[in-house]
Design goal:
single chain; mainly alpha; 61% helix; elongated
Amino acid sequence: MDHLSATTSDRYRTRLFDSSRIHHLEPSAKDYRAEHEFFIDAFFKHRWYSGNHKRDGPSLLQAWNAYIHNLEDVGRDAWNDKLIKARDKFEKRTPTGARYKLHRLSREKGLPCLSWGDACPCCVNNSARAPKEAYLLTSPWWRVRISTEMYEGIDNLKSLYDRAWKTFSGGPSAAQDVPHRTAQPDPVRQPSVGSGAPKYPRTGDSRATGRDNSSDVRSRRGGSTAAQLDSAGHRESPLMEVEEEERRSPHDHVDRCVPESFFDRVTQGLRADLEHERNRRLQLADTVSKHRAEFSFAQLENERSLTSLGDDLRVARGIVDRSRDEIAALQTLVDAHHREHKALCEMLERKGVLHRKKQRTGGTA
């Protein structure tokens, strides 16, 4: 926004409002620059979600001023709700938004990008995209990590491509028995392969006669729904489909039409996951028991150490008490000897054996 000029013509000037007017509205920003960049990012995100692609200076200035006014009038929380609604609408109704949602969800989970079809607008290159196993339900590793919201985003993106008469170039195979749903399927309503519309059977004349895609043209101009869905799920060439049908045996065709195979794969995968979780639970229980035993032994050792230290402390206190008694007895004996010595000296002085020392006065020598 800094390089935009506020002058739109020689006679008319548009004032560019500074974002300092809405300072302290974003509590998560640590400083003014981070808060300023937050509001600029929210401004351009809302324009992208709303499909407003005008890049000229006057349009950006007017949109920025209206954005500042809205933030001041309705507040930050209400405007964030508006931004979230615009993002949800953008991610649900446009292929670019659907790819952006898949990129955002996969990156939040720490997974490779799950965007289908064209190149992801958020990835630097397409080398970090998820493999085809991520969209199937046969791999336990991917089935545990991909959430229901991700599979719903995949279905939404494929339905948007089908409505636009486009095909996936980097997505999974176009097998009819591969549902793109979560690992917990609904037993009542089996998920479809394309959009959420009901699945109609293919017409037999298009494969048997090897006709061109004239039915696609009729469906675009208001043809039958069955022909429209047939052209949406149609593969590259009808002749290749005829040759593939001739190579297949009737037994393969019957197996392909049986819906129990999907539930069998899901059941086997869930059983494997259950067995893995049961073994993991047993290992955790063993680890907890081991740690509890080690803790009990350590606690017992600590109690023994505390008991031993208490005994040593009591012995030391007894020694100190006895030493004090002995010191008191010795002091009494010393006092008695001192009294006897004094009495003996006085007796000898009285008998004249010892002469008393004369005390010197201050005036005599």
